[in-house]
Amino acid sequence: MVELRHSSSVGARASSSPMKRDEDASPLIHVTTHDDDHRHHFSRDRDRSFWSFLSDDLRVFSLLNSKISLFLIAVFAIVGLISAFSIFNRLNAPYLCKKDGIVLHCPHVNEAPSLWENPYSATTSWKPCAERRDNGISDLPPENETNGYIFIHAEGGLNQQRIAICNAVAVAKIMNATLILPVLKQDQIWKDQTKFEDIFDVDHFIDYLKYDVRIVRDIPEWFTDKSELFTSIRRTVKNIPKYAPAQFYIDNVLPRIKEKKIMALKPFVDRLGYDNVPPEINRLRCRVNYHALKFLPEIEEMSDLLVSRMRNRTGVSNPYMALHLRFEKGMVGLSFCDFVGTRDEKARMGEYRKKEWPRRYKNGSHLWQLALQKRKEGRCPLEPGEVAVILRAMGYPKETQIYVASGQVYGGQNRMAPLKNMFPSLVTKEELATKEELDGFRKHVTSLAALDFLVCLKSDVFVMTHGGNFAKLIIGARRYMGHLHKSIKPDKGLMSKSFGDPYMGWATFVEDVVVTHQTRTGLPEETFPNYDLWENPLTPCMCRA
Predict the structure, then answer these.
(1) 409 and 416 Cβ atoms separated by less than 8 Å
(2) Is Membrane found in the keyword set (predicted)?
């Protein structure tokens, strides 16, 4: 019996002719014997085992492939979820708080337990220590031994005038001179004719400082040509540098006062330094600011009435926030920052800046780069809408009672709308008081400014939006008087970076705002060279409890 069997390796090369295969005596032709039969069965068993093994491998491989596929599907699903979450966050960026026209709707933030109190005030042990010494003994020389009289014009708005008065008392002390009651000079912006006695309690001012400096109400009678004191260059010291040290007055001003007996010092804005004068002189400046300068009783009483109305606007006792909003046309123009607005609005602002500040404006080509740099450095006023978003991120709810101290906001109601809609319980003194109640204060712009100052000073939370004497004097006073109430100074540099990041989600923005401002709440801070005494009176006006 003959069986034909092809090897997989040789069959491909075998001839298709049987005759040819026979003639070639192909080794593929065998005669079946017993041994061949045994080998044949062994070969079949071996082949069957091989294919069985191969089949098992294929099943394992298929199972492994299924597991890998499931793993990859899971990975892709997770990546997809992360991407969706990222897109959701981008759509909820802080400046995209669900815009509805000019209205902003930001996500809800849980109200923090320390929203209305300064959480770190108990961790400090500072107390005010610039008040007058009880049973103090005057170290002033007799009146006839005074080195002379000094006279100053306190320029600017109410708070710039306040600083000038404090500095005038300090300079009089440095030179052992008599201070003539300062004149509150009419400012070209404020256009106010207020006198010292129209705002401050003169009797208290003179009496409280009687152990420190001799102060008289008017120019001495023996000096007959009073107009000369206002106009004559011979009676004026004009070369005083900004932030001058105490020694400058002793070396350069005192000899002229001794010679002429009466001298006017002008200009007098920021003409005395901070860290280049003796500590007792700085302490005296704090004594003037926080203790000697008191507003008239009628101003104090009206401010108390406004505060009472703010604390009872909901029918029950409620805390309130005071917001100093610096976004008047003059402030926006002077800042040289760029703000959201129409092309026509920006063109009008450009013309306004060119007219008011021609030296800074030049040809206007450099202003865009300047605006970007100032915003990056946090030197631009916060817009009302930006303030609204920051306050919401801090956790203040829609029902927050807010007192706004501000001039006429640039852009009017449209600019105020985002803030007003997010915090509808927002009022000014004109809305809290009747026209008749305020009429007595309207004749002096500084009287109205004094009302704003006191209502902000007594608030549970004070928020400033830009620098300036008003804000730094309030923050300094709240620090000095015990720093129990929160005074928030936004980090405008960080906020500018966050507002400009299109990929920052709302949750990340909220975390940044809360963490950044945890310690920016008006606590006393260690002083540094050229520090501002009015904003941070820690040394030498405060001491350890």
Answers:
(1) yes
(2) yes
Three-class secondary structure of residue 264 per DSSP: strand
**Residue for token digits 């100052």?**
453
Per 3-state DSSP, the chain is made up of helix, strand and coil in percentages (nearest 5) of: 50, 10, 40
Output the CA angle 251-255-256, nearest 5 degrees: 120
Q: What does the pLDDT look like over 371-419, one tens digit per residue? A: 888 888 889 999 999 999 999 999 999 999 999 999 889 998 989 999 9
Dihedral of alpha carbons 205, 209, 210, 216, sign? negative
Residue with tokens 């109200």, as numbered in its chain = 111
pLDDT band at 496 (very low <50, low <70, confident <90, very high): confident
Using an 8 Å Cβ cutoff, are 502 and 362 in contact? Answer: no
Cα(405)–Cα(288) distance, integer angstroms: 24
pLDDT value for 64 = 60
The bridge status of strand 262-265 relative to strand 149-154 is: parallel
DSSP, collapsed to helix, strand or coil, labels residue 53 as helix
For residue range 192-248, list pLDDT tens digits in order. Answer: 578 899 999 999 999 999 999 999 999 888 887 777 777 777 888 988 999 999 999
Structural contact between residues 213 and 173, judged by C-beta atoms closer than 8 angstroms: yes
Collect all residues with Cβ–Cβ distance below 8 Å to 516 and sequence separation of at least 6: 491, 494
Q: How many helices (H) and strands (E) does the chain have?
A: 23, 17
**CA-closest candidate to residue 186, choices 444, 406, 454:** 444
Q: Could you tell me which of 299, 322, 325 has the C-alpha nearest to residue 407?
A: 325
Under DSSP, the state recorded for 461 is E
Question: Does 267 sit behind a cis peptide bond, omega within 30 degrees of 0 on the bond before it?
Answer: yes
> 3-class secondary structure for 239-263?
CCCCCCCHHHHHHHHHHHHHHHCEE
Contact 425, 402 (CB under 8 A): yes
Q: What angle do CA 410, 412, 414 make, to 5 degrees?
A: 115
CB-CB contact of 493 with 377 (8 Å): yes
Q: What are phi and psi of 186, to 5 degrees?
A: -65, 130
